[in-house]
Amino acid sequence: MESIVDTVVLVAISVVGAALARRLGFVAPLVLLVVGLGLSYVPGFPDAHLEPELVLIGILPPLLYVAALQTSVPAFRLALRPILLLAVGLVVVTALVVGFLVHLLLPAVPLAACVALGAIVAPPDAVSATAIARRVGLPRRVVTILEGESLLNDATALVMVRVSVGALMGTAIGFWEITLAVSRAAGGGLLIGLAFAVAAAWLHRKVEDPLLDDAVALLTPFVVVIVAESLHTSSVVAVVIAGLYLGHRIPYLLSPTSRLQMEAVWRLIVFLLEGVVFLLVGLQLRDVLSAIETDTATTVKVTAVVFGALLAIRFLWIYPATYLARLIPRIRNREDRPPATVPTVIAWAGMRGVVTLAAAQTLPEPGVDGVPVYPRELFVFVAFAIIVLTLLVQGTTLPWLARRLGVREDSSAEDALAEAGVQHAAGRAALEALEKHADGAPESVVERLRGLVESRGNNAWERLGSQERETPSAAYGRLRREMISAERHVFKIARNEGRIPEEVLVRAQRELDLEESQLQRSDD
């Protein structure tokens, strides 16, 4: 019962913190991290220990899965080269460089343990990168690169941690052993993710009940991760592949009711998980500080060197990766050369998150089962400090930097023009379908449907016009909402006076709510 109460308290605090973040104009992960840091020293506040298994199997899978569902596969494929350079190349280089630097500072510590620390702090976080990038309003390709990097870099980092820990424990690690481990993790994860995605797609096609559709969708990431972990492959790769595959095919797999309902369910789950996870990260401060035994000077020195190295390595990697690749004619002809401001923003958007802390908690205890003595508590603190520093330093300054450099989201006019063109073609197809199947239908119904097609086409073209005056569709939405409010009020009074049963009110409310939600979507 106590754990249930603690969970309710954490969820409630995360909801209040998210509301506070919206009121202050900050990103929720930053506010909740600070709230957690403060609450960790409140007397009597429940202890919260972040178990690695909870993060890697219970929290990370749905977050990665939803992020993959929402990722555009064509955009992901076009940005695959920079994504892999960041998610694989940069993570490996960061782990090795940070490992060697820490080994120079602490020569008595085995190099394998230092490289494990480098791998732990190497991957930027999926949640914070996506939340902040979207909030800032960065160009679509930049957001795709950051999302793609955060979807795949955890797999690279976790494999490197596993290999480094194996070397630390005395397992023979050579080129072929590492190649085999990486191939098994990545290749096995890809096959498992694809196999379960195909199975989930088959189930979605067979299921007609929206509730069962949602149940299949909720179970998919957890089943994929559990199977991948049991077969010692990369669960991150597996769940991302499953999400990309199903997300690209959702329009053909689910009914409209299922899609709307599943979107609402996932939004709530992601909202709660994101809030709780960053609150839990902040709450670790007291435990992490109480466990550290290394002297303060060494702790500060190692933390500062690791933080500085992470910033420098990311900048030194991204500029050559951006511009040297364009010396190749095929790439130069396919991709425009971005201004230097774009890689600068990408380089600064390297916030770390919960996976870093969870991976640090998996480090083996020194002096147990043949593990050499090394400062495990120092490495856990460094991982925690890197999360806090990157979120508070880079996370808070990224919006300012993007505005200062003039890196803004893509023009809405271009999207509106593309939408209007496709809407025009869609309208012609709709009218052709109407004429083909209209035999025997009342003329009034046919005319009403023709008017609906014309109205949608006009709405698309209106978005290209001036925003200073109210458009006809905006006026329609405003007036129709007032009408719906009046209708809803009449039904409520009739229910209160006993002239209609509750079931009639519920049915009328549902129809009015659906129409009003459609008006809201049109405004957005």
Tell me about this structure.
Residues 12-403 form the Cation/H+ exchanger transmembrane domain. Keywords: Antiport, Cell membrane, Ion transport, Membrane, Sodium, Sodium transport, Transmembrane, Transmembrane helix, Transport. Pfam families: Na_H_Exchanger. This protein has helices at 2-24, 28-39, 52-69, 73-78, 80-105, 111-121, 126-136, 140-168, 175-206, 210-230, 235-253, 256-283, 285-291, 296-323, 329-334, 341-348, 354-361, 376-405, 412-437, 443-462, 472-496, 502-523. The mean pLDDT is 84. It starts with a helix and ends with a helix. α3 (52-69) runs parallel beside α11 (235-253), α8 (140-168) crosses α9 and α19 (412-437) runs antiparallel to α20 (443-462). By secondary structure, the chain is mainly α. The chain is 79% helix and 0% strand. It is globular and about 85 Å long. It contains 22 helices and no strands.
Distance between the termini: 43 Å
The main pleated sheet reads as: none
- Can you tell me the residue ranges where pLDDT is under 50 for at least 5 consecutive residues? none
Coarse shape: globular
Task: Report helical residue fraction.
Answer: over 70%
Instruction: Kindly estimate the percentage of residues that lie in beta strands according to DSSP.
Output: under 5%
**Rg, nearest Å:** 26 Å
Give the integer mean of the pLDDT values.
84
The ordered H/E elements are HHHHHHHHHHHHHHHHHHHHHH
Structural class: mainly alpha
Please count the beta strands (DSSP E, at least 2 residues each).
0
Give the helix/strand layout:
Layout: H1 2-24, H2 28-39, H3 52-69, H4 73-78, H5 80-105, H6 111-121, H7 126-136, H8 140-168, H9 175-206, H10 210-230, H11 235-253, H12 256-283, H13 285-291, H14 296-323, H15 329-334, H16 341-348, H17 354-361, H18 376-405, H19 412-437, H20 443-462, H21 472-496, H22 502-523
